Amino acid sequence: MTVVIFAVVALAVLGLLVLVHRWLWIRLVRDTTRPGGAWRRAGTALAFALPALAVAALTAGRAGAPFWLQRAVSWPGFMWLAVLLYLTLAMLVAEPARALLLRRPPRQPPEPTLPAAPAPAAAAAAPTELGGATPGVPAGAEGAPAASRGAAPGPAPQSPAGLGSAAAAVPAGAGLGGAAPAVPGGAGSGGAAPAVPGFDGAASAGLPGLGARSDAVAGAGAEPQVREGAGRGTAPQAPTDTPVGGDAEAAAPAPAHDSAVATGAGDGMSRRRFVARVVGGAAVAAAAGTVGYGTYGVLRGPRVKRVTVPLAKLPRAAHGFRIAVVSDVHLGPILGRAHTARIVDTVNRTQPDLIAIVGDLVDGNVHDLGPAAEPLRGLRARHGSYFVTGNHEYFSGAQQWIDHVRELGLTPLENARRPLPLFDLAGVNDVQGESEGHGPDFEAALGDRDRSRAAVLLAHQPIVIHDAVRHGVDLQLSGHTHGGQLWPGNYLAELANPTVAGLERYGDTQLYVSRGAGAWGPPVRVGAPSDITVVELASYQA
Known about the structure:
Among the domains are: 2-104 and 268-286, no CATH class; 302-539, Purple Acid Phosphatase, chain A, domain 2. It is α/β, with parallel strands linked by helices. The chain contains 16 helices and twelve strands. The chain is elongated, with a radius of gyration of 44 Å. The strands form two sheets. It has a six-stranded mixed sheet with strand order 1-12-2-3-4-5, covered by helices on one side. Strand 10 (502-506) and strand 11 (509-513) form a beta hairpin. Helix 3 runs antiparallel to helix 9 (271-299).
């Protein structure tokens, strides 16, 4: 049944990872790159390669892969898991902003306007009705077209040199959009010109090459102009608001999504792609900055944290006794010998009375990580250094590490107690050892002790606190949680542990949980800085 549950959970996690990677590919690759481009191909390749490296990093150690291969896949694989977490969170936060930017209408460029042509002197001297407008009046001088003035009651005689038709004298390329056509040289003026067979004003609206904008001229209040010395007449015009000829193309509004002018994004870039690049770039920068800072915090080494814990049974002579608590070092393919040396130097500078390593020292076997653990030989404390197993020791073989740390000068406490001059120090195996028949045994460690003496218990996982309370332990020192390591992992850690970090009281027993000196998986910590805690015991009698 346990195997089935594990398989179901593993499949659910795998499916979630696939969906997350697919969504990130859509937002960061498909929406930001051109189809078939080099960036699209590179992003797609990374979308497959990075999760494959992450899976390899998670499984290489337990699969027995060569250590060099573990190191090769661990850095990119584990780092991608950290980036994936914060990239996903950043994109989720940015999703409403992205939707808002896409819904906001694009800024349209101002509509171009045509300046009114100056009125010729001759046209200004002879008022004539021409399409319902008075010629020779400057643009904007009248609020409405003038009424017909001086129109002859009858048709004017047609002259070969004069105007026989308004359309007959239209020069090629002249505009016809609410203004009478310009008339070339000729004499005379009169009222309405007789119609020319085969031509009327309505048909003239469709003549090729006529490009004047009726909407621009009429909207500006400009009056139609007539060439100097031309005869004047009226020709019926079909009302139209549609630009004709070349101006129709110029007047067409730019598409909202593909206009470079509207978006300001440059030639050939759509509004959607521009927004996707801005939002995606900001999310990538935020994720990279967060992971970079968290990595720096781990690689620089843990900081010292000091906590004072008063114990009711502690004698006055033990007041101020200092215990350096080191947990979750996690030596492995990423954190090696240099990391151990930094921890040893930091611990020794605190000048502790006792050193307690409370599990998860390593992620691998002695053959691969023995050299990385070698600096532990340099630990110095007046009452010695002690070690209890964590769950990760059992993944690679706990007994080999128990034997090895003993060679390095540490004292393993395997469900055992060591009476010190001023209090009892006990240690229990991690609960992971139950799978091998070597789980925690509180009766063996604490069953026959003198309960009038203060007792300090080393136990990797905080969940055994209730057993400690039943056996009259005064202080339990633990690790395991990493303080969540990567925010918001602390909320998940709270679901599985009574205390995630810090000091809390359970009845007459106090529990202190260290965030740890290293990191598991990605060498990154966000919101849970690594620490080495110096617990200073205090006596009520002091």
